[in-house]
Structure formats: structure tokens, C-alpha cells
Amino acid sequence: MIIIDGKKTSEQIQEEIAAEVVKIKAAGGKVPHLAAVLVGNDGGSETYVASKVKTCERIGFGSSLFRFPDSVTEADLLQKIDELNNDPIVDGFIIQLPLPKHISDQKVIERISPKKDVDGFHPVNIGRMALNLPTYISATPFGILKLLERYAIETTGKHCVVIGRSNIVGSPMSILMARNGYPGNCTVTLTHSKTRNLKELCLQADIIIAALGKPGFLTADMVKDGAVVIDVGITRIKSETTKSGWKLLGDVDYEAVAPKCSYITPVPGGVGPMTIASLLLNTLKASRREVYGG
Ligand code: NAP
Question: Which atom of ligand 1 is nearest to the CA of 235?
Fold first, then answer.
């Protein structure tokens, strides 16, 4: 059994991107620039955005952070998006979600130019993904693809069961694993809370991607020997044994499932750390105009 090390893989990708930036600078090219917009002062979102900006600086990207109070109007936020869409310095930008209730997440997402949508949430980019056209794939699915690729995990002809059909994880994952390419070429079963025979389906799976948000849900009796298990779940619970007072739990009963697997991602340290690497890869792609040209 091989434990897929997302932390190490993410760090490797970041080093590779940093080396690219050195080359770009040496050739007198434009340094990739990621902008982030943060609304309100939710602690979690703030930490998230701060760490993204810090990583940008560390690998040599340009970055800017725009903060708005909770009370910002939708019109003002949309105006900022228009500015960023037209700012030649900014190659890509992200709006930290969720937004306050009086602002429509969907309206905001759709205002971002697909060319600069490095989070890959714009319907145009999701449509392009479904059509297997060049696009920005959103961070979590992209991170999973990169892990499969970096560990050279065979996917062609395999049966992949995805548990969960959310717009940000399960649904795109099912499309990506079924598409013609690598990683891909799987026969995919997309399951959800109304699926009746989940255990039987999982027992037929060569690859299981668990993304439902129920700690320890995937148990050993649902997994066949030699399966690849990707655990996307993150549930934060209080803990007396950790320094922070919190503990992260995945959707897989790791201790019991791991010995049966050929590959497995741990929680924490599996899929989670790949998010930042995905965002940086998308920003590099944006600065190179790889998706839309021009
Ligand atoms: P979500 O929007 O809550 O969706 C959960 C999905 O799981 C739904 O499609 C739901 O089915 C399905 N589901 C719930 N109970 C089920 C059951 N008993 N059997 C089969 N399917 C079931 O969750 P999400 O945003 O996709 O996130 C899923 C987990 O991944 C969460 O723990 C989240 O924190 C984590 N996550 C991690 C990362 C990362 O970077 N590692 C990124 C994003 C999310 P219905 O559609 O029928 O309700």
C-alpha cells in the first residue's frame, strides 16, 4: 500500500513553478500575478486567503489582496471585478466564497472574465471542462488529477466510483475521470445520498473518490483489495489530543481501509494541500494565455 503524499507533491509542484518564474524573469517576461478579493472578516476565509497570497510571494508570483467590509454592496463588488477583468497586470483572480447573504455568489462568479477565472467556477470554464476543451479546472478536482498523474496511477478502463455529486467536487470529478485522456478513460459511477446499492457499487470499484463530508463513511467492507482510494472529506472536530484543539477527519475509515488499498490519500496531508498547487498552476496557465490565447 502506498500513501499518496499530497503535502510533498504540492511542495514539489510549487518548487517547479518557482523555477518557471525564475526563467520567465530571466527572459524579461511578465511575472504571473494572482489577485484575491476578500469580503468580511471571517477567520477561516482570512487565513485561507492570507496563505494563498504568502505562497504567491514565496514562489515569485505577483499578488494583490483587496478587502471589503461585510457591508459592501453587490454593485461595488461587481465594479471591482470589472476592474480586475480589465487590469493587464492581473492574470487571474479569485473571490473568496461564501459571500455575505445580500450578494449573489452566482452573479459574482459569472461577472469574472472566464479568461481570468483561475478558480474554474465560471459556467463557461465548467462547460469547457465537460467538452474536454482547454480550461481552468477547479482546485480540488485538479489537485486529485495531479495526484493520480504524479503517482502514475493507471486509470484507463478502470471502474471509478465517485461518492457525492456537489458542483465543486463530485460532479466535476465524475466528468474528468470519464473523459478521453489521462487521467481519465474510466467507467464512472456517480453516487449520492439517493443511491440504493452503494456498498455493492463500491465493491466493484478500482478507484473510489469519497467526497460526501461524513467522517469514516467508507468502511473496509465496501472496498475491494487493491483499490485506489481518494479521500476528499474534511470534517473538523474538537480534539483534546492536538495542540490546536481541532482534528480533521476524512470520509474514509483510514485505519481499516488503508491495508486493503494499492494507494490511499490520508486526511490531513492528501487532497487538501493540493488546492494551492492547483490555483498556482491555473495562474501560470492564465499568464501564458494557454486556455484562451491572446
Ligand atoms: P456537499 O456539497 O455537502 O455534497 C455532499 C454530497 O455527498 C452530496 O452530493 C450528497 O448527496 C452526498 N451524500 C451525502 N450523504 C451521502 C450518503 N450517505 N451516501 C452517498 N452520498 C451521500 O459536499 P462537498 O462540498 O462536495 O464536500 C464534500 C467533503 O469534501 C466535505 O467534507 C468537504 O469539507 C470536503 N472538501 C474538501 C476539499 C479539499 O480540498 N480536500 C475541498 C472541497 C470539499 P445529495 O446530492 O443527494 O445530497
Answer: 32
Three-state helix/strand/coil letters over the chain = CEECCHHHHHHHHHHHHHHHHHHHHHCCCCCCEEEEEEECCCHHHHHHHHHHHHHHHHHCCEEEEEEECCCCCHHHHHHHHHHHHHCCCCCEEEECCCCCCCCCHHHHHHHCCHHHCCCCCCHHHHHHHHCCCCCCCCHHHHHHHHHHHHCCCCCCCCEEEEECCCCCCHHHHHHHHHCCCCCCCCEEEEECCCCCCHHHHHHCCCEEEECCCCCCCECHHHCCCCEEEEECCCEEEECCCCCCCEEEECCECHHHHHHHEEEECCCCCCCCCHHHHHHHHHHHHHHCCCCCCC
Q: What domains can be seen in the chain, in order of their start residue?
A: 27-115 (3.40.50.10860), 139-274 (3.40.50.720)
Q: How confident is the model at residue 63 (pLDDT cuts 50, 70, 90)?
A: very high
**pLDDT tens readout for residues 9-30:** 999 999 999 999 999 999 999 9
Distance 211 CA to ligand 1 centre (A): 5
Which of the residues 5, 14, 52, 91 is marked catalytic? 52
pLDDT value of residue 92: 98
pLDDT digits (tens, 9 = 90+) for 164-204: 999 999 999 999 999 999 999 999 999 999 999 999 999 99
44, pLDDT greater than 90: no
In short, whether 275's Cβ falls inside 6 Å of ligand 1 is yes
52 counts as catalytic: yes
What pLDDT, on a 0 to 100 scale, did the predictor assign at position 201? 98
Predicted TM-score (pTM) above 0.90: yes
